[in-house]
Specification:
single chain; about 80 residues; mainly alpha
């Protein structure tokens, strides 16, 4: 099996486990972002350009959602 397939299988298993074990949607999205960032960093030399671009777009989208989650939690803390 090529390293590319190993990376994508790791990411698939990571996201499935995150979906099964996460108690909330925000935790699932955060853990999914972490998994994508791990695969992007470790698989930089092994992934094709198209795969990296797809993962980067997914990570940008999840980073935007993560920023919204953090802003929401900060608002809850400030609100009291």
């Amino acid at each position: 099996m090529a390293m590319r397939e190993n990376m994508l299988i790791f990411l698939a298993i990571w996201i499935i486990l995150a979906a099964l074990l996460s108690p909330s949607l925000s935790i699932f999205l955060t853990v999914s972002l972490i998994g994508i960032l791990i695969v992007l960093e470790i698989g930089d030399f092994y992934l094709s350009k198209e795969t990296k671009e797809m993962l980067k777009m997914s990570s940008y989208f999840l980073l935007l959602i993560f920023a919204f989650i953090v802003a929401q939690k900060v608002y809850e803390v400030i609100k009291g």
